[in-house]
């Protein structure tokens, strides 16, 4: 590894989460500079590959959120041109980014995950929307949560507490993707758990309990300062705290992730931990949960990312 690695932070892109990505990129770039790392920030466009060829960085830190950054395609291109990068490999990204697939793998690994149905828009329309919604309510009960199967930042996500509200929930989800995930809504405490692996195996950082002012952790609650209270470490018993850590690490391993991930969990009134989804490129903005976990663990964000960069450079572009 070079003594002073040159790092390229990629942020922006064309997904609905562009603004969040840019904020994550700025935050990480500043943290890396504070840690003494040479950093360049760049958006993703037609000039990226010529840049990689002519001014090759030692490592890329992809902080693109949404489909263009988390579906594995960008990382596959980085492997094609032989540039090391931080984070999960393309195949693992594709699996983790597809919520129903990730839930199925988590369930096979022994994790609790809410009952759900994934419905493509074409199926929903061809079978008759009213009949399908009646069947959903009959099978899954109420309340439900409806969200796109691919995407993040709670865009297109809504909690449905009545049968009459389900139609609008489906419309909202289809506005952000071609397939909607209709999932039984688990009442309880929402907890985010970051998992990091700096070479000694994955470990969970302190869990963050999420308490949005409006009761729902939607896009506004996630990225508007002061609209959500974050409690870290979460107010959990020692046994439940150990269980949320176990669930997050199990999901990270079962899905074949590496370096950094964040699992979104629910702890219900009986102390059971439910796996909802995992993020391979978690937000690192000033209102995101991962930096809070890093700080609660007594770590420095820039130093941690620099350590992960070192690991990425040492393993090479396609290992």
TrEMBL record:
The keyword Repeat does not apply. It catalyses: 2 D-alanine + ATP = D-alanyl-D-alanine + ADP + phosphate + H(+). GO terms for molecular function: ATP binding; D-alanine-D-alanine ligase activity; metal ion binding. Binds 2 magnesium or manganese ions per subunit. Pathway: Cell wall biogenesis; peptidoglycan biosynthesis. It is found in: Cytoplasm. GO terms for biological process: cell wall organization; peptidoglycan biosynthetic process; regulation of cell shape. It comes from Nocardioides mesophilus. Cell wall formation. Mg(2+) 1 binds at residues 264, 277. It is an enzyme of class 6 (ligase). This is D-alanine--D-alanine ligase. The active site is at 17, 153, 288.
